[in-house]
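#structure-requests
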Amino acid sequence: MLWLKAFHIIAVVTWFAALFYLPRLYVYHAMATDKEGIERFKVMERKLYRGIMTPSAIVVLLLGSWLLWDYAWAAYKHMGWLHAKLTLVAVLYAYHWYCGRLLKAFAADRNTRSHVFYRWFNEFPVLILIAVVILAVVKPF
């Protein structure tokens, strides 16, 4: 069970690294003006999203579900902190999905947002991370 938990944490760290970096690439992509730089960002964004971010999110989901099942959902289903944490994780998956939508817009040269939007957008997973860690460690309710 500890191996499962360790690999789940590794996948979470990898997923968050990508969740932090992809919107940062969007900041620079939105600021880019030269064709060569824009094409380079498209490649980097696609490889990060498809090669690291999405596979990590899948591993997080699979291992997290396994851990939840193995630790007996019956014991945890009344713990409010867990429901709050799982809700925030669901919000994070929606954020991940929206990053994919933005990726498609950039790939088709249809981005309509400024680099300032992406700078703020980039901060969202930090807030989720803080809340999830506090919920998982402190278990305040």
